[in-house]
Amino acid sequence: MEQKKTVIVTGFEPFGEHAVNASWVAVQELEKLGLGHEINLHVAEVPVEYQAVQSLLPSLWKQQLPQLVVHVGVSGMATTVTLEQCGHNQGYMRLDNCSFCPESRCCMEGGPDCIQSVIDMDAVCKRVNSSGLGVSVSVSKDAGRYLCDYTYYMSLFLGEGRSAFVHVPPLGKPYSAEQLAQALRAIILEMLELMEHNKGKKHCLHDQ
């Protein structure tokens, strides 16, 4: 019998003007929906603190041995559900919920400037947008140099690229928590399918 795949999905706690963080609300809705019988879904709320992320992420990757980790964050500027292609190492100057920011301004001293996800976000975006879901999806290459970007970079590093980041708009602008959860479910299932499909041809970029 094939072992169930494990997928971890995280949202963030409230911060700044986001007294309710749409990302965690949407992830809790997703937990109710589930990802089908073949997939173990674990959800976690991530503190908006650099040091907490440093300790939480390695334990998530080690304990659960996930196929994929998807981090969800809220962006006050987003009007679509936005797939982030890469995480960045440097430029972290904004203070977190503990009024802390890394002295080095980076995630990992000596780490690569940018780490790409193994998932082709353009392909995921196209598939979900053409599925008639009613939620608009777009792709970005800048996750914003705050806890979202920081978390994504760490996760990409720990998981050797088997991570994804999704920015959602605040609740009701324009989507409800249920709509966001439906979109996350569709996005994650597409990501898993693409990863499965690309297993044998890691180094071949001709057919993208």
Automatic annotation (TrEMBL):
Keywords: Cytoplasm, Hydrolase, Protease, Thiol protease. It is an enzyme of class 3 (hydrolase). CDD domains: Peptidase_C15 (cd00501). It comes from the Eukaryota. The active site is at C148. It catalyses: Release of an N-terminal pyroglutamyl group from a polypeptide, the second amino acid generally not being Pro. Pfam families: Peptidase_C15. Its EC number is 3.4.19.3. One of its GO terms (molecular function) is pyroglutamyl-peptidase activity. PANTHER family: PROTEASE FAMILY C15 PYROGLUTAMYL-PEPTIDASE I-RELATED, PYROGLUTAMYL-PEPTIDASE I. Belongs to the peptidase C15 family. This is Pyroglutamyl-peptidase I. It comes from Sinocyclocheilus grahami.
